[in-house]
Design brief:
Length: about 140
């Protein structure tokens, strides 16, 4: 994004360009004693995104355990740098971004490992592993 001094509020609270900031409010079903973003939240997964093709539908409930999120003031700069929002929270906040032309780049605020089980792995993990296998095969040729 070519923002001089860009940082996160967690890493450098004095940064004048915090692209990652403390969540403005707690998720409604916040876990007792947990961070601001702990528990489940409904998402709107945007059409035409890789995340939507992986998850298969527009609505998803995902698990969180974090205090920080995307600073929405930088959304246009994220988009100009090639990142597109692929999921939004209940109040329209960015919850996932992806690079359209990358073989597999999806960054999420939610944590798929929290709802993944050996007998039912999260779809995002399965998609990531399949992409890694395709990449490995392409490198072996």
């Amino acid at each position: 994004m070519k923002i001089s001094g860009a940082d996160s509020a967690e890493n450098d609270p004095a940064s004048s360009h915090q692209v990652v900031t403390l969540l403005s409010c707690a998720l409604p079903p916040r876990r007792a004693g947990g961070p601001r973003g702990s528990g489940a939240e409904q998402l709107k997964i945007l059409p035409g995104t890789r995340l939507r093709s992986i998850c298969g539908n527009a609505d998803a409930s995902e698990q969180y355990y974090c205090n920080y999120g995307v600073n929405e003031e930088y959304e246009k700069q994220f988009q100009a740098a090639g990142l597109r929002v692929s999921a939004r929270g209940i109040h329209g906040e960015t919850r996932a971004v992806e690079l359209r032309d990358h073989r597999f780049f999806i960054a999420t605020l939610f944590q798929p490992q929290l709802s993944s089980r050996p007998e039912a792995p999260h779809r995002l993990w399965v998609a990531f592993l399949r992409a890694a296998i395709r990449f490995r095969k392409s490198r072996a040729r």
